[in-house]
Amino acid sequence: MPLPDTMFCAQQIHIPPELPDILKQFTKAAIRTQPADVLQWSAGYFSALSRGDPLPVKDRIEMPMATQKTDTGLTQGLLKVLHKQCSHKEYVELADLEQKWKNLCLPVEKFRALLQLDPCENKIEEIKFLALGCSMLGGSLNTAMKHLCEILTADPEGGPARIPFETFSYVYRYLSGLDWDIPASDTESYLSSLKDSVDSRKNGMIGLSDFLHSKEENLENLEKKT
C-alpha cells in the first residue's frame, strides 16, 4: 500500500537564508558565461564556490569570435576566466588546468593540442599557458599580444589596455621563439624599438597603440626599402 503524501505547511519548511542569494548569483553567472553544458559548468561553479576559489564566470556576455584559427570554442572571455582561476600560482598542474578547461565546456582534445605547441610533463608556467591560449585565439603574433594585453590590463574596457613592458617582452620572446620563421635577432630588434618608446614615458607600461602602431611603421619602412 503506497504511503500517503506528507503535507507540509510553510512554517515547517526551513529555507537557508543564504540560498536565495546563492541561486540569484548562480543564475546571473550562468547568463553571463553562457556555458555550452550547463550541468558540467555548474559542477565546476559550485565546486569552486565551496572551496572559495575564483569562479568560472565571465565578466560579461561576449559574442563568439570569428577570427580563431580553428573552431576551438575558446574565446577571450573564457581564457580570461582560466587566467583568473590560475594566476595566483606561478606554475599550474596540468591535471588541475584540464579540469578547469572541462568545467568551461571546452573540448579536451583542443586543450591537449594547445599543449603540443610547447610540450611539458606535469605542470606549466601559468603565463606561458595564457600566451599559448592567446596564440590559439590570434591569427598572428601581434593579434595574440593584443589578446594578452586586453586580458591582463587593469585599464577599463575600451581603454589603452596597458600592461608592464616586462610582461609583454617575456611573452613576446616566448611566442616568437616557438615560431622558427622568426629570427631571434628580429625579435630583439623589435622589442628594443618598443622599449625606447616605453622608456621615454618613464612608466614601464605598453599599450595596444604602442605596438600595433609600431608594427605598421615597421612594415611601411620595409616597403620603402624594397
UniProtKB/TrEMBL annotation:
Top-level taxon of origin: Eukaryota
CDD domains associated with the record: DD_ROP
SUPFAM superfamilies for the chain: Dimerization-anchoring domain of cAMP-dependent PK regulatory subunit
Keywords: Cell projection, Cilium, Flagellum
GO cellular component: motile cilium
Cell compartment(s), UniProt: Cell projection, Cilium, Flagellum
InterPro entries in the cross-refs: ROP_DD (IPR047844)
Family: Belongs to the ropporin family.
Entry protein name: Ropporin-1-like protein
Organism this protein belongs to: Neophocaena asiaeorientalis asiaeorientalis
